[in-house]
Structure formats: structure tokens, C-alpha cells
Design a protein that fits this description.
A: 3 helices; globular; B: alpha+beta; Rieske Iron-sulfur Protein; four-stranded antiparallel β-sheet; 25% strand
Amino acid sequence: MTSLDAMTGPEARLRQVEQFIYREARLADEHDYDAWEALWTDDALYWVPAGGDLTAPAGRMSVIYDNRSRISTRLAQLRTGRRHAQDPPSQLRRVISNIEITGEQDADILAAANFILAESRERGVELWAGRVIYRLRQAGDGLLLMAGKQVLLVNRDQPLPTLAFLI
Amino acid sequence: MPADGSGPVRGRAAGRPDYQRLIEPARVHGSLYTDPRVFADELARIWYRTWVFVGHASEVAKPGDYIRTSVGLQDVIMTRGADGEVHLLLNRCAHRGNLVCEAQRGNAKSFRCPYHGWTYRNTGELIGFPFNQGYGGKGTIEAELSLARFPRVAQHQGFVFGSLAADGPDLAEHLGEAAGELDRLARLSPEGTVELTAGWLRHRTRANWKLLAENETDGYHPQFVHGSIFSVTGSPIGALYSDKSAAVTRSLGSGHSENDLRPEFRKAAEPMRWFGTTAERVPDYVAAMRAAHGAAAGQILIEGAPHVMIFPNLFVAEIQVFVIQPLSAVECIQHSTAVQLAGAPELNRRMVSQSVGSVGPAGMLLADDTEMYERNQRGVAMLAPEWLDLRRGLARERTDERGLRVGGATDETGMRGFWQHYLRLMEAA
């Protein structure tokens, strides 16, 4: 992990954000649930919307709409080894690109990227793709944490196959 | 026998599977889940003949509202006309067969086919065709060329059902004892009204639709398929589906079935336990229910919501509604949404939140069911032992005061009822 101390300026910040996003992707791909969970802030929101409607998520069905507590439950279920939809775990690799810092909100960094993800299971290979919008926060020790991750699947308005891994 | 092979063999066209042989009282043949001929028969005899759930009236609340939905492989537009009535139309232009409606939902008085501009009222009538001199002017072909309308549309508690057959049992007869379960759901609304307005998740499933229909009231699987989430959350649901549970599985007739959990909830006698909460935590809801139902509210809040599978495609699981859409012998789509109860905003928020956690492609319950369906589909394609066994609880099954067959909480009474009805439909003249 990169320390802020050695960096200054917008270029350095972009590099730091990129490195965070790459690491988050790798931890998800490799089912490193403990390290992935440690990336989240206490006010976390992990949101995978369904359909085209991105308004009022609290009253609408989403594929995933996890606060910190539910992220913890989701990971605890995966750790049991008896989450059948991830037993065995999917083989995953995602490519993240088009990373941009898009703004700031209450001192959090807003960043966005595109991704393509290949998932292999006995069922076959699924191709997942979409845009990820991150809300990142500087922790006291100069590291970044994730307060929000929104995954906008390109096919979110179509029927989706089982999505039991960390997207 | 005619040369085209269509002659009768024991009263059926040659090549039609012999369902009497494939469906026995306590076992069914694996080919019922894999054979494309069976699927073709099901389309004709079930999906395009009996009553099929197509949507909820609350999804087209205002005149002009429409949604795209389906019955079997048919693309269906459900509309609310200016007359306030719900209409079911097939999404196919009478000119060249193009889709007339592309949007998933909206509000429109009419649908204009993008191909040649033919325009239909949202009740199906042809009202415009450009350059009409080519047809001899207006008032020539309109009567003959409209969108196809379902000959029969009917509702129960706002659940809209359509039948593509002009004749047959009416909806009340089809629903039979299952109607009371939808009534029980509506009674949980202080205003007596269910709404399905939270949007739908759609989950692509590589399995035959009947594996889902059978599983919906299978009380045997929860502890095994859902053990991971039950253990993590300390959920008491698992115990409701055990050998010690007082809950029962009931065949409701016409292929419908339920897991009746009320015996367990009555024993506990705690209001809102069915929802995994207490009356204190949803005070506004409980107050509204007491205002609406008076003394009866106590029992209603103890007994909770139904867990009922309505043949062939509607499943109400307490706070969720599922719809099964068949695509082929080996693939289907599960639609799921949260129940919303008019006059219960406090409960509605929680029902959406719980449902999002449980159902759909990432659901902590349903993704595991779906994994089982897909593995099951691969299993039934194996050559032997050929049959799926349905005998669980046969020896301890009884007939209740309503004349319905009742088994234990983990018994296959519901599946046996499903297949009995299925056989009747597949063998009907």
C-alpha cells in the first residue's frame, strides 16, 4: 500500500486511487474476504442496482444493497464454506480501466472506472461488465478506505445469472 | 397410421410422451425435466390454457399504465385502459408480426408499431395505419386486424391472471383453496391491499421450471440448502422445517400447495414473530392493524403471511413474491419482489430490505436454491436411476377437515399434488 507521505499533487492522488482500486479488485477476485472486508468504512454502502431505476434504492429491489452489517453477514456466509452458490468459489479475473477521479463529497474522493470480469464455474464462463463508482476516504494513517461501491452492470435491466461472488 | 406419424397411439398422437407412465403417485420420470416434447406439450396444455399469473394490478395503477410481461414464451403487454380495466395483449403487430412495444413499462394511450406505423389503442384495437389508401381507406381493415387479446383476464386481491383459452374453469375454481391464502396476505395490510411496486429482480436459471415449482413448498431442503445463512444469522426459520416442527405441508388442489407455518406461530403466540421481529419494533404498523381489524388483529399478527405455491407460476413466500417464467425444457427466469402492504410504510421498508438480502441473483437464500436447481438439472439428465422419488411422508399423510391432503413440515405432499394436477392437464382431451 502506498503512503501519502511520499506524494503530492493531483497525479499522486490519482495514483493512490488507482492502486486502491486495483487492490480491491484483486482481493475480490481471490476471495480474500478478510482483507476485502477491512477496506470498508463503518458507514459502508455496497450497491448493485437492478433495472434502469437508480432513484430511491431503499424502497426498490436491488441485486445487492448492503450496509456494513450486511456486508459482514454476506462474508460470514461465504466463510462457512457452505454457501453452495460459491462452493467451489468462482474462478475470477477482472480488468479495471478508465479510472477517473470524478469529484469530492464531504471530503470523500469520488472515483469511477469501467470493468470486464470473466467468471468461470462448472456451469460455464460468464462475462460481466459495467461501471464502478467508488466513494473513498482518507484514513488517519494516510491509507484509503471504501465508503461506497456502486456497480452498474451493463445488463442490469436484463435477467442475470447467479451473482454470488464479490463483484 | 397416417404417413406423417400423427396417428393415434392409445388415444394420443404418436410421439407424445405417455404421461400416465411417466407420472406415478410417488415418483416421476427424469425425462419430464429434459424432454423438449414435454416442454412443447406444457406450453400448449398448461401455459397457453390454464390460468397463469401475469402481473399485479398495482403495477398498472393509473389509466394508460402498462408493463411488458409474459405467459409461457409469449411476450405480453398488461395495460390499464381508459375504462380502468386491466387488459392483456400479445405484443405482436397484426401487420408483419413486429413487436409493438419495446419499453418495459410506461404510460401510453396507444402503441405505435415502429415498422410501418400501425397504431393500436392500449386495449388492442387498430386505430391507424399510414397511407391508408393502400387498404381502401379508413374503416376497412380495423375490425379484422387488432392486437390479440387474452380471451380471459381475472383478478384476485389484485393478482392478475390470464388464460389464453376461451373456455375452462373460471379463476375462482382454478384458485380454489389457494384464494384464501392470497386473502390472508391482503389481510396483513391495514387497508386490505397488497401492492407489488418495489420492482422485480430477474434471475436467469439453467433449470426446468418444475424444479422450482416443486421446491417452493419443499420443507425438507431449508436446513441443508440454507444452513450457511441460518447459522450466520441465528435464524429460527430452519427449526420450522424439521421433524419436530408442528408446521404442515398441504396440497391445496389444482396443483397448488403450501407450507402452513401457523401451528408453530400459534404455539409461540407472539405477534410479528413470523416477520422475525416484535410488536414493539413496528408500533405504527401494529396500531394500524388494531385500528383496522379490532380484536381479530391479535391472531392475524401471530399467524402472519402465507407460504403458498399457486400453479403453475406464482409463489408467495411470506414477504416475497416470485414468478416462474419458463424459457425451454432446461432454462427459466425467476422474478422476485418484496410484498408491499398498503398503509404499512414501516413494514414495507423492512420487507424490501430483507428481500434484497434474500432473493435474486445475489440473494443469500435464493442464489443457493438456484445452485441446487442448476445442479439438479444436470443430475436429471443422467440415465439412471431414471426416477425422482416423491414418497416422503406418504405413510403419515392425512385428509383434513377441508378434504385436503396434509403431511408433515418436511413431507412431499405438495409435490404429489402438483404432479397429480399436472397429469390431469397433460392427459386432458
